Amino acid sequence: LPSVSPPHLQNDPRFRALLAQTIQTALLRERTRPSPPCDTLSSCRRALSLERRRSLSLALRLAEYELLARYSSCSLHNDMEADEEARMNRIRRWVGRKEREMAEEKGRVVMELEREEE
To answer: pTM of the prediction?
Structure first.
């Protein structure tokens, strides 16, 4: 798989199949793309200019996709980390609440025992 695919999708068989199909379609489209005629020096220069622009466009699109993949991957990890932090905070609050309840219950039990002794 290309390095631009997000890590959470790399093991997904549907994603892998879709990616393979997309790559094959792009390769076929590129192989069947007609090249401009190159009969004279000026037509060759024009064709080279067109190919350079196309190459630059593809390089910019690839950079955009790489950034998007990196950002979405980081975003996913940040979201997962935030969810885990929230879960830990809920557990800490629950444990703190249970400790207070146990301390209150212990105080009540001690007071009842003292009353029964009197």
So the answer is: 0.43
